[in-house]
Amino acid sequence: MSPVLLPADMRRRVWRRCCQVGLVAVGVVGSVQVASAQTVQRYSDPKDDFPISAAVQVPAGAETVYVSGLGPAPDRASGTTTAEQTRSALDQISAALGYFGMTMQDVVQMHVYLVADPRLGHMDFDGMMQAYRARFRSAFPARTVIEVPHLTNPHWLVEIDVVASRNDMNKKRFPAK
């Protein structure tokens, strides 16, 4: 694919846009690579019904947003279960993605950090999965769940970070108002 030379005013607009979102798609000085019409591809083992993708392929030129680790909303952080805190953290992530005109269906990768629930004496993987399955029924992200000794907020049982990506140019663009 050869680069397409854009007029100077359009290069400035593209550069500003890329800087706002944190993406730079410059192939050679003053040119931008044209994105292909491919879509995000998710790969899973057809014999396995576990709700994650084994791999996700994101095409070049796709819009990508990285959401830092979020825990439950402050009003739900104390005295709740892993399932409730996971639901709250996913709500927080959904709101963050909404700012960019994205949804949870655009999530391509997820890292879940769990601490031991003091009531159980171990991490509550089943509680996390209960909330996760309620939110993800299809378009599963590649996902890793990691048990950690503690999180920055001592009341949190879960923290989640995600990467979301899409290349559907008909959806809302940054910033979604």
From TrEMBL:
Gene3D superfamilies recorded: RutC-like
- Name the Pfam families on file: Ribonuc_L-PSP
Picking any one GO molecular function of the record gives: deaminase activity
Database matches in InterPro entries: RutC-like_sf (IPR035959), YjgF/YER057c/UK114 (IPR006175)
What domain of life does the native source organism fall in?
A: Bacteria
Chain segments annotated as transmembrane: none
Q: Which PANTHER family match?
A: 2-IMINOBUTANOATE/2-IMINOPROPANOATE DEAMINASE RIDA (PTHR11803), ENDORIBONUCLEASE (PTHR11803:SF59)
Return the protein name. Translation initiation inhibitor
Q: Supply the source organism for this entry.
A: Gluconobacter aidae
